Amino acid sequence: MAIQSSLLSMLAEQIKTPLTTLKLLIFKSPMRDSLNPQLARIEHIVDTVALMDSVKRDTQVKEKIDIANLVEVQWQHAQSMTDDAQPLQLNVHGNSVCLANRWALSIIFNNLISNAITYSTSPNVDIMIRQLHNKTQIVIKNPSVDLSADEKQALTSQYYGATNKACHRGTGLGLWISKTLSEANNGALHVSQNDGEFVARLDINL
Question: Which of 11, 150, 168, 181 sees the fewest Cβ atoms within 10 Å?
Fold first, then answer.
C-alpha cells in the first residue's frame, strides 16, 4: 500500500506540468468560463492524489489561525469547481482563532467543503465554528442521500468513493486524507450520515 501511494503521488506530480500548459490555453479560449470549473475539478483530484504520500507526517509548525477566515478562503476555492455558486452559511460562536498548522487545516477544510458541495442534495451547506473548553470544533452539515450501514462504515476508508446525486463517484481519498491529517495534528475527524443529513465534525485540541 505504501509503494502504491508513493507511485500515485509521483504520477500526480508529473501530471501537474501539462495541466499548467492546459490552464494557459484555456485562459485564451472564448470558452474559458465553461471550461474553468472542469479544469479546477481535475486539479483538485490531482492535488488530492499527490498528497497520499505525505498525509501521515506530523506537521509541527503551528501558528495562530483565524478558522473563520480560512473556511471562507476554502469555500471560495471549492466554488471555483462548480457551475452553481452557493452563498456561504457560516455561524461562529466565540473566538475562532486557534493554534494549528495552516497547511494541514487548508487541506482538511478544502476536502470537507468540496465533499459537502459535491454530495449535497440541495444548495444548503451549513458550517458552524465554536470554541469549547479544550478544543475548537468545526461542524459542516449538508443534506444527503441515505447510505447503507456498510457505506457509513466505509466513509473514511482509503479508496472508498460514494456516488453523488449526479452519479459521479469521488476519488475515495478526500475524507481519508482529512481524517489522517487530523490525527497527525492532534485532532480528530468524525463523520456521520443519518436521516438525510451528512455531518463532518472536526475537533482541534488546544
Answer: 150
Burial degree of 70 (CB within 10 A; 0-12, 13-18, 19+): buried
Here the cell at position 88 is: 456561504
Contact 109, 71 (CB under 8 A): yes
Q: Is the per-residue pLDDT at 171 higher than 70?
A: no
Distance in angstroms (rounded) separating the CA atoms of residues 155 and 175: 7
3-state secondary structure the chain: CHHHHHHHHHHHHHHHHHHHHHHHHHHCCCCHHHHHHHHHHHHHHHHHHHHHHCCCCCCCCCEEEEHHHHHHHHHHHHHCCCCCCCCCEEEEECCCEEEECHHHHHHHHHHHHHHHHHHCCCCCCEEEEEECCCEEEEEEEEECCCCCHHHHHCCCCCCCCCECCCCCECCCCHHHHHHHHHHHCCEEEEEEEECCEEEEEEEEEC
Report CA 136 to chain centroid distance, whole Å.
18
162: confidence class by pLDDT, cuts 50, 70, 90:
low
pLDDT of residue 70 exceeding 90: yes
Tell me if 111 sits within 8 A of 75, measured CB to CB: no
Asked whether 185 and 100 are in contact (CB, 8 A), the reply is yes
pTM above the 0.85 mark?
A: no
Least confident span in 38-52, 58-72, 135-149: 38-52
